[in-house]
Amino acid sequence: MIRPFLLLALLSLPLAGVASSFAGTSAGSATGASSGSSGSSSGDDKVVLAARDDAAAFVASDGQIRGARLQAALVHLREQDAAAQQQSDLQLARALLAR
């Protein structure tokens, strides 16, 4: 009973305008990168921010629902940050949602 509610709640977050508060966040900061490697461009941020809905579905489904935008963001994060290479997909998706 809780999972459907959680999924609905997570999917409704971007509709409430929450995503706009993360526009200035760099791609490397959620993965514990040092400040020297967290300077991503705005194009990089767009890849990660576009994956928020997919990340919410992935987390809410405990990894069963995997969207193409999330997959692209995971690849991007791992290319940009060595610490992200050591984290699971679920850990990175949660970090992406915490931005």
Automatic annotation (TrEMBL):
Residues 25-42 have a biased composition (Low complexity). The keyword S-adenosyl-L-methionine does not apply. Residues 1-23 form the signal peptide. It holds the Pfam family DUF2388. Keywords: Signal. InterPro entries: CHP02448. Residues 25-44 are annotated as: Disordered. NCBIfam families: conserverd hypothetical protein. This is DUF2388 domain-containing protein. It comes from Stenotrophomonas indicatrix.
